[in-house]
Amino acid sequence: MRYLIRSVKYFFYLLIILSLMIAVLMKLNLVESDLDKLFVNGRDSLWQIALLMAVFAAIYPRFGYTTRFVPLAGSFEELRPGALEVMQQAGYKLEKEEAGCLCFRRRSPVSRAMKMFEDRITFTHALGGWNIEGHSRDVIVIASKFKG
After folding, report:
1. DSSP 8-class letter at 40
2. Which residues of the chain have pLDDT under 50?
């Protein structure tokens, strides 16, 4: 279900960015203002562009989000303070804590919006360390901050 939600969000994100870019280009008179003249196939090109964006949106969550294992010795109670410190330094705050699981969100609302509110990083305690799940770039940066 999370995959589908991320795909739909990314589709609308792409749609908004493309629409804004075309609107700016039209306002600056850099492109034709009539959609029938702007695209080779006229208005028929709109559904083709939307289909292409839907394909990208369907593929993106597969590569944009990941889980990485960070090997660390210790129990959940021993590893928890280190995780809190690393996430505090990375600009995250603790959202919720469940048995063996810590969920973090970005502190900055602007930063959250730039990530389409898909900024959650989840630490799940596993035998021998943490499983860190979230946006690929963020997970890689955070995982590299742990010293094992």
Report:
1. T
2. none
